[in-house]
Amino acid sequence: MGLPIIGHSLGLLKAMRTNKGEKWLQEKVRKYGPISKLSLFGKPTVFLHGPAANKFVYTCDGNALANHQPASIRRIIGEKNLFELSRDDHKRIREALMTFLKPDALKQYVGRMDGEIRTHLNKHWEGEQEIAVMPLMKTLTFDIICSIIFGIERGRRRDLLAQLFQKVMEGMLSVPINLPFTRFRGSLQSSAKAKAIIMELTHEKREALEKQGSSSNQDLISCLLGIRDENNLPVISDEEIVDNAFTVMIAGYDTSSILLTFLVRLLAKDPSVYAKVAHEQEEIAKTKGPDKLLTWDDLANMKYTWRVATETLRMYPPVFCSFRQTIKDIEYGGYLIPKGWQVFWAACMTQMDDNIYPDPSKFDPSRFEQGTKTPFSFVAFGGGARICPGNEFARIETLTMIHYLVTGFTWKLSTKDDSFCRDPMPAFNQGLPIIIQQKSSATPYDA
After folding, report:
1. pLDDT grade, residue 445 (50/70/90)?
2. Which of 69-73, 118-122, 293-297, 302-306 is predicted with the least confidence, judged by mean pLDDT?
3. Angle, CA 285 vertex, CA 279 and CA 289 arms, to 5°
4. 321 belongs to an annotated ligand binding site
5. Which ranges does the record mark as transmembrane (predicted)?
6. Alpha-carbon Rg for the chain in angstroms
7. Interior CA angle at 26 toward 21 and 29, to 5°?
8. Which of 81-90, 160-169, 270-279 tops mean pLDDT?
9. Phi, psi at residue 278, to the nearest 5°?
């Protein structure tokens, strides 16, 4: 089980930071099979591997397995977040979030997301220059979430939140020892400050709604405030609103920016894929005037581009591992997992299994022309009742940004070192520097 409290935590974190996390776990599978035990982040833990394990976790009865993140994540995000809740509370919060994040509701936000992306490109990508992709993609996803999730205009408060979120992310997956100068202490302090800003924002939006000076559909926080039961009482408390707005922010901030960064790298290294994506997007651009925003129907026509994005997620998943906790003694694969144990699995490992995806290191978007053949083998957005509620939000964000990039720019890598590590999310060592050149005929991204 490893050292007291620390267990195997430092070994796993070190492997992830040197981009060897999957090899570290594969060695464990080689030695002990698809079910084994260890200690992680202060908890006795069982490690599960394979499509059957993915299916077991994603479809398990809520009375047997509960959402239960490592103490570092739970204390930084808050106890009332969706990833921590189970049973009726999970259902209530998820249904509330889906009021805002379901496709029918998101259609009205395509134009706002389009506008944020145009503004970002005008500010950061114009002309011929060298830029670092990953920091700029993080700036973009942060601005989109601030606008659509929080309803925060550009200015001092948004800038402060950006600084705080950077610190929050640094200690999300760490040994939860609250001592000075540790990553965990820094993230915990930044989380408290960020959540105070979100609580203040929640109070402001409630006051605006009560005065009927604003719409409950203008952002996620306003939407959650506007949800009432049959007695006209709030369905969600202020603390739940703050914790879950914070959760959506964290879930969307890194994941979408990572996918977009890997797509930029792919399109720079594979001219044939770039040509096909560009052709699809230019055909859509021909139907638009320079001032016409993208629509939901335009996104539906970006089929090849989304297959490219899906294959990118298969090979380079932003989220490496996840956790649950047993509510009672349960049996799996002939073993008894005791009540209170942590269940740990790296669902994405099945996405590089050559028994499921032949030649898994080869980039091949055609794999997803007919969907996934093996259930629970592609789980970039989770699965079952707990599939990521923000998957459509991410799709809109990704397709819209790629549309304006390939119709407005060409680019090439400006470094031979395009490697990355996981800390715990993928991070490029140099931020992925590229040299961009604006297409002379490009007008679609003009604000």
Report:
1. very low
2. 69-73
3. 160
4. no
5. none
6. 22
7. 135
8. 270-279
9. -60, -40
In order of 12, 307, 316, the CA distances from 24 in angstroms are 7, 29, 17
Predicted structure pTM score: 0.85
CATH no., domain 1-63+320-379: 3.30.43.20
Q: How far is Cα 303 from Cα 310, in angstroms, rounded to an integer?
A: 11
Q: How far apart are CA 392 and CA 400, in angstroms?
A: 12
* Residue keyed to tokens 């996840």: 322
Q: What value, to the nearest 5°, has the Cα angle with vertex 405 and ends 362 and 245?
A: 90
| CB distance 183 to 231 below 8 Å | no
Residue 338 — φ and ψ, nearest 5°?
A: -65, 155
pLDDT in tens, 297-333: 999 999 999 999 999 999 998 888 888 889 999 999 8
* Helix 238-269 / helix 87-101 crossing angle, nearest 10 deg: 60
Residue 259 half-sphere exposure, CB side, CA atoms within 13 Å?
A: 29
Strands 43-48 and 342-345, by their bridges, are: parallel
Average pLDDT over residues 361-366: 92
Chain centroid offset of residue 406 CA: 23
Pick the CATH number of 64-319+380-438 from 3.40.50.1000, 3.40.50.150, 1.10.630.10, 1.20.120.680: 1.10.630.10
Return contacts of 409-416, CB within 8 angstroms, 24+ apart: 409/125, 409/436, 409/437, 409/438, 409/439, 409/442, 410/436, 410/437, 410/439, 411/264, 411/267, 411/268, 411/435, 411/436, 411/437, 412/268, 413/265, 413/268, 413/269, 414/130
Bridge partner residues of 336 (DSSP): 331
Chain centre to alpha carbon of residue 407: 25
Cα atoms in the Cβ-side hemisphere of radius 13 Å centred on 313:
23
- Output the six-digit token pair for 107: 């259609």
Start-end ranges of CATH 3.30.43.20 in the chain? 1-63+320-379
Amino acid code (one letter) for 425: M
Extract the tokens encoding 429: 């060592």
- Matching residue, tokens 């202490």: 185
Two tokens at 132? 């670092």
Asked if residue 357 lies in contact with residue 336, where contact means CB atoms within 8 angstroms, the answer is no
Cα(140)–Cα(270) distance, integer angstroms: 24
CA pair distance 329, 335, nearest whole angstrom? 10
Q: Residue 70: CB partners within 8 Å, gap ≥ 6?
A: 40, 41, 42, 43, 173, 176, 323, 342
